[in-house]
Design goal:
The complex is a heterodimer of chains A (199) and B (464).
Chain A lengths: L5 E4 L1 E4 L6 H4 L19 H4 L22 E4 L11 H8 L4 E4 L4 H10 L2 E4 L2 H13 L5 E4 L4 E3 L7 E2 L4 H9 L3 H6 L2 H9 L6
Parallel strand pairs in A: 2-3, 3-4, 4-5
Antiparallel strand pairs in A: 1-6, 6-7, 7-8
Helix pairs in contact in A: 3-4
Chain B lengths: L4 H8 L1 E5 L3 E5 L2 E4 L5 H9 L10 E4 L16 H17 L2 E3 L9 H7 L8 E4 L13 E4 L2 H10 L1 E5 L2 E8 L8 H12 L7 E6 L1 H4 L3 H9 L8 E3 L4 H7 L8 H11 L12 E6 L6 E3 L7 E3 L13 H11 L14 E4 L7 H11 L9 E4 L4 H9 L2 H7 L3 E2 L20 E4 L14 E4 L2 H10 L11
Parallel strand pairs in B: 3-4, 3-6, 4-5, 6-7, 9-10, 9-12, 10-11, 15-16, 15-18, 16-17, 18-19
Antiparallel strand pairs in B: 1-2, 2-8, 13-14
Classes of the chains: A alpha/beta (199), B alpha/beta (464).
């Protein structure tokens, strides 16, 4: 996993609530057996017509937001299917942060395991961020993971965000859970020897 | 100290707690399928690791398989390669595989219970969000991403923060024509599509106790549709009767020991929940969804709500535009062209019996394409043994071979753009059943009646 420390980037606004992982990456693109290349089909049905032409009214096809690495989305982002491919697709398309007022549980975990930061803010802050981007599509936000802050141009105060301290360390250092779990081998073996509920 | 059912099972599976409030959590059973496992096997190989407990893993091919001519090679090269990859990986790593053609093949959440792999008090995971289905047995079961699939493969554990606990109590008798599917669609409508995010839900009350195991699985299956990590129902005589004699259920003396333990799995009277909700089950009516998430449900005979502004207005309008519906409109009389009966929500023998009982001696409407996809080879064989295949065929329904099919349309079973499909599956997301497809979620009974009438009707007028 790549390290994540700080990011200064413009935003791609997607003011839709309950964006499910079927929208992020439709099921018909899940036939690959590797992790790479899902970005090309990110939001495929919102982004392209049935004959593969870009839909001009979809935000990912709007030149003003090209290259921006922060996705700003309505609440309950990533609900539905557990497909980690959704996080891979966002990452592959260049996103490093998704900001929303809350995330579906499985997506949040998948994002963290992919090196994509799910940054949760209040409904009010989310609304304010949509307004900032509406006024200036090039407004650049700064995410500082160590300090757990989000800096917004024109705002007097930085926004503090929460993140599990262990997950924070993982992202900053590019670690994942496997190394940690493998290191627990002795405890796991001891545990297995006293399982009494398997008949 | 008084404990909830969830706490009892959770506490028994804590290997250790680590700094920051995370838990090294032990997984008893791991189900895998062709779509979310190949990258996990590759990651394992890339790190020089192997499966820690291959005997605790069971594999099947379901998401991406055709539902016709399963005895022949898969036509779609990408699907074939994914299914072949599962077969290769299972052979290489020593995992039991119930692949195409095997007598136990089927949808992962149908075969686990019917083989007795799913048992009370266990923890189960699968790279599929509908793993919550297995909670019907008093099992902590939940969906995980592929990185977590790798973690369980390598360590038999996950690093988790403990979810909050919610209890949803449904007391009262269900009305005629109201099923487990209507019950859970009603609950999701009440909570909204994200209303249980962060929680593990225990379903309780007389209406839940009165459900068959199939019905309880339907309820727990859709827990994820309101954001819950999983759903749980305390095991009881219904659970034990269902499990007894199944292929991997405990046998002989072990059975008695198992039941003695399982009988301790319930929430103590004074147990504390983080949230408690209560609904009157007798008020529930046959349900249908009108929008593009499972929380957008209404009683079949009600009208689509009218929204007055709010942050959700944009999403609501987008949803109705996609569906081709107007706020305030009734769905009764809407012509339907497709009926899909299947998926891990409603493809069990009880569902097929419900459909067959209604359509016996009737004919589907000429303009409706009605397909019925059994959840497993065992369900298919049981349906044939009971003669349901003939009843369905005579009524114009096409009985296919097992798989996830048009629930997520990874295979060829797709609904055309713009067409309406009444579906017994679990998700009505945009494009879920094919690009542009419009899905209306409902019970198998509503689906059967719709197929015969060719349009949405108030089903209470059609019951015997």
């Amino acid at each position: 996993m790549e390290k994540f420390q700080t990011l200064r980037s413009g935003v791609v606004p997607l003011p839709i609530e309950n964006v499910d992982t079927d929208q992020i990456i439709p099921a018909r693109f899940l036939k690959a057996t590797t992790r790479e290349g899902f970005g090309a089909n990110l939001f495929a049905d919102w982004r392209y017509t049935s004959d593969g032409q870009p839909k001009p009214d979809f935000v990912l096809n709007d030149a003003r937001y090209l290259g921006h690495q922060i996705l700003l989305a309505g609440k309950n982002f990533g609900c539905g299917s557990s497909r980690e491919h959704a996080a891979w697709a966002l990452y592959d398309a260049g996103f490093r942060v998704v900001i929303s007022s809350y995330f579906a549980d499985i997506f949040r975990g998948n994002a963290l395991n992919t090196g994509l930061l799910p940054l949760q803010v209040s409904d009010e802050v989310l609304q304010g961020l949509f307004e900032v981007v509406a006024q200036d599509p090039q407004a650049a936000l700064t995410v500082d993971l160590q300090a757990q802050t989000l800096t917004v141009p024109g705002w007097a105060e930085v926004i503090h965000f929460e993140l599990d301290p262990y997950k924070k360390e993982c992202l900053i250092n590019g670690y994942d859970d496997i190394d940690f779990l493998i290191s627990q081998e002795a405890a796991i073996t001891a545990f297995e020897q006293q399982r009494s509920w398997v008949f | 100290m008084a404990k909830t059912l969830f706490d009892k099972i959770w506490d028994a599976h804590v290997v250790r707690e680590v700094a920051g409030g995370l838990t090294v959590f032990y997984i008893d059973r791991h189900l895998i399928h062709e779509v979310t496992s190949p990258q996990a096997f590759d990651e394992l190989t890339a790190r020089g690791l192997t499966l820690r407990r291959p005997e605790q893993i069971v594999a099947t091919a379901d998401h991406n398989v055709p539902t016709r001519h399963q005895d022949q090679p898969i036509q779609d090269p990408l699907s074939r390669s994914q299914v072949d990859k599962l077969t290769e990986n299972c052979a290489k790593f020593g995992v039991e595989l119930y692949g195409l053609g095997h007598q136990y093949q089927g949808i992962v959440h149908v075969i686990g219970p019917e083989l007795g792999i799913t048992q009370p008090g266990l923890t189960m995971v699968c790279g599929d969000s509908h793993t919550s289905t297995h909670g019907a047995f008093g099992t902590i079961a939940f969906g995980i991403g592929t990185s977590q699939v790798t973690q369980v493969m390598a360590s038999q554990c996950l690093l988790l923060d403990k979810p909050k606990r919610m209890r949803i109590t449904l007391d009262g008798d269900l009305r005629p024509g109201v099923t487990a599917k209507d019950l859970i669609l009603y609950v999701i409508f009440q909570l909204g599509t994200g209303g249980a995010t962060g929680y593990f839900v225990e379903y309780a009350g007389s209406a839940i106790r009165g459900l068959s195991m199939e019905g309880r699985m339907t309820v727990c299956n859709m827990s994820i549709e309101m954001g819950a990590r999983g759903g749980l129902i305390a095991p009881d005589a219904t659970t034990f009767d269902y499990l007894k004699g199944r292929r991997f259920a405990p046998q002989g003396e072990n059975w008695d020991r198992a039941v003695a333990y399982w009988q301790t799995l319930y929430s103590d009277e004074d147990a504390v929940f983080d949230a408690k909700l209560q609904f009157d089950a007798s008020a529930i009516q046959p349900m249908i969804t009108y929008g593009t998430n499972p929380g957008m449900g209404i009683p079949l005979s009600a009208s689509i709500p009218v929204l007055n502004g709010g942050s959700e207005a944009t999403s609501f309008d987008k949803s109705l535009r996609y569906m081709g519906f107007q706020p305030g409109e009734s769905l009764l009389g809407k012509e339907i062209n497709y009926v899909f009966i299947g998926s891990c929500t409603n493809s069990r023998i009880e569902d097929l019996r419900t459909v067959a009982a209604y359509v016996r001696g009737k004919q589907k409407a000429a303009h409706v394409e009605a397909i019925i996809v059994p959840g497993s080879k065992q369900v298919e064989q049981q349906a044939i043994a009971e003669g349901l295949d003939k009843v369905l065929a005579e009524a114009g329904f096409e009985l296919r071979e097992p798989g996830c099919s048009a629930c997520l349309a990874m295979n060829d079973d797709k609904i055309p753009a713009g067409a309406y499909c009444v579906s017994t599956s679990n998700r009505n997301f945009e494009g879920r059943q094919g690009p542009g497809a419009r899905t209306l979620l409902a019970s198998p009974l509503v689906a059967a009646i719709t197929a015969v009438e060719g349009r949405l009707v108030d089903i209470t007028q059609y019951l015997n």
